[in-house]
Protein 1
Amino acid sequence: MADTPAPPSPDAPRRVALFVTCVVDFFRPTVGFAAVRLLERAGCQVEVPPTQVCCGQPAYNSGDRADAVAVAKDVVAAFEGFEHIVVPSGSCAAMIRVHYPKLLGDDPVWGPRAHRVASRTHELVSFLTDVCGFESVADVGAAGSVTYHDGCSGLREMGIKQQPRKLLASIPGLELKEMLDAEVCCGFGGTFCVKYPDISGEMARKKAATIAETGADTVLAGDVSCLLNIAGKLSRDGHTVKARHVAEVLAGMTDTPPIGAGSKE
């Protein structure tokens, strides 16, 4: 077991491990680079542990407890030596922070280790605002308008609501247009969209229509998985709203094509 890290000196940069997430790694690496840029601007020393693996959500949500436990142990071992673990995904952050202590809690060895890692795990934007005291990205600048979708896990399990809106409001030239029912699920829900495709599809249709009704140029969220689902439905239903992870806008990294561009997710 890794030793508990010594308390840093007041002037030392926070030693942060970035949990990249599978979806970011495979579908939207730009989000990972945006996260690093934002964390470094907040004064953090960022590392990406090479032994990191999936957080285990697919197995956990499917009832495969044995594999979920095995994956959770791998994640705990890879990240327990860091002062903070930061995740550009509310759902993956919630898996580690909320569910790992329950998943491994009965194990006398792994339970305490899981609790320690969970207590140090944060979603990216909430870490920037609530821990680092990051208040503005006014030097980024952006033209146009955006609307923000509150992902279910980030909102309900991690308490993320005002943090991204606060930073977006600090960007000159960017207009935030709130959608109706921003807190309503987009229909993805991990394995939910596979188990209940008809229900999921109708939820996505309503979400896409609500987004389009705002007149915003772009929809933002804190989870790439939600954005892939939303972008696909927006495209199929003929809407022209673009989709981006909020970190890309906050970091000024919007020169890449939006999520879902050129495809029919």
Protein 2
Amino acid sequence: MLQRIFLVGLLAALSFVFSVTPARAAKPWELLIPFKRVEASADKIYRLTDDHGPWMILATSFAGPGAEKQAQTLVLELRKKYNLEAYLHRQTYDFTEPVVGLGLTPLGGPKIMKYANAAKFDEIAVLVGNFETVNDPKVEKLLEQLKYARPECLDVSKNKGTTQRFVGLREIQRRLTPDLDKKQRGPMGNAFVTRNPLLPQEYFVPKGLDPLVEQMNRDVEYSLLKNRGQYSVRVATFRGSSTMKINEAKKLPSKLEEAAVKAHELTLALRKKGIEAYEFHDRYESIVTIGSFDSVGAEQPGGTMELNPAVHQIMQEYGPKRQPLPGQEAIGLMPRALNGISFDVQPVPVQVPRTTIAASFTSSHRALR
């Protein structure tokens, strides 16, 4: 009975959200242009600025003599051939300075240590995309596209040399790995999602939930808002709207309801198996996450992220199964499912949303008006 009451209330809130959200009218010229063409001028250097992002994908990086030239060549090819917004960003790394190590000296002072391979160098990164949120569904699609893309400028067999970072090591790893999926990846197979490094840390501090979204999740038994960790792993996403056709616009509220019900049912099914699952609903989608963590992992000097083993285990356990495609020798990815409800093809860590004093004040203030 309590579950029925919860679902009735949630579906009513979702229907209200849909009814008060104004539709965006297309500009006249947008109807005449089938798609936006990204600028790609050989006379222009596309450098990263704080106007880009805030979320992007680091495709690859270069270092050494000629690094910027090769990075610029890749930027132009990504813009011309793939129609992607690509930018250059120079980062300086200095490993020549002494650092304070763990423990104390025999005299009780701090241990002063140096890096074994002390060096100072510049690295030129190529970043792609402009995303307002890391949960934008286009992020996953673009990341997948970059990992398997094969730009001509990165083809070592066609070029005399390359300044791409760790290209030799990655090629050896690709040849030795038994993972068929990794073998098929291109020279940007290690691309990953990152933040615009030119934006301050404060920009990425959660600004509090929309009061209406907070209200939608407040009384949910296993709400993600009750997760005590800083991060969780999103394993399933159910989007409320998947069409822009005018004749289907009236069906959108039912899709929001269906998304909420699926997320709720999957969360309960996971909880029955003893798994720490949570659900969260907003204006556009419902998600299911697993686990609570204080850290996703540790950032390495090269900018890569070494994942928390527990986080990585969840991503592997609920990621897709690899199996032969019907009638083919190729290996395909089949999403896992529980009680007939499918998980995401790519589980990802997400930050746990938090209510703030400011959000609570705004909600109370509106209620009193």
